Amino acid sequence: MKTKRMFPVCELPVGRASSLALMASLALAPAGAWANEYSFEYGVEAGYEYNDNVRMAPVDELSISGGRVSIPATLASRSERMEASLDGELIFSRFDEDSYDSDDQDLEGKFKYLFERGELEANAGYRRDSTRTSEFLDTGVVGAAATRR
Q: How many Cα atoms occupy the beta-carbon half-sphere of 85 within 13 Å?
């Protein structure tokens, strides 16, 4: 006795061609593609900062205060042989002295695939850091103006 597999025809608002393309892609997709585990994690962290002598100068002390917000997030996928993740973080700092404000972004991607007799691993990252660098390299004196990188 022969068995037949029947798939219900689903109509999409765009038309029958889209439905056929969807059914064909589902029928041709490898079974392992459905076994992936996906996750998305995120958080929000906030805090207050105060420094009574931010330049660590013996005279003309400068005190600053302000807030900081950090938003980390991770998107990951895992299967029997493959692991991939994308980690990101946005950090915003605002102070009563504008030259100490910063907006930093950090993004890191990781990929790992296991073969029968080996493995392939790749990592990539991007960082935009707006940290204050106001030291004069030749004297070590800290200036009042900020230089962003």
A: 12
Q: What does the pLDDT look like over 44-71, one tens digit per residue?
A: 999 998 988 877 778 888 888 999 999 9
**CB contact set of 17 (below 8 Å; sequence gap of 6+):** none
Q: In the beta sheet, which residues pair with residue 103?
A: 92
133, 149 Cβ separation under 8 angstroms:
yes
Alpha-carbon distance 10 to 17, whole Å?
11
Phi first, then psi: what are they for 53, rounded to 5°?
-150, 75
Which tokens go with 48?
């207050």
**Are 122 and 108 in contact, with CB atoms under 8 Å apart?**
no
Q: What is the pLDDT of residue 20?
A: 52
Q: Give CA–CA dist 113/108, Å, rounded.
A: 17
End-to-end Cα, the chain, rounded Å: 73
Q: Which two tokens stand for residue 142?
A: 């800290």
**Predicted model pTM:** 0.60
Q: What angle is formed at CA 103 by the lines to CA 99 and CA 107, rounded to 5 degrees? A: 150
Rounded distance, CA 78 to CA 80, Å? 7
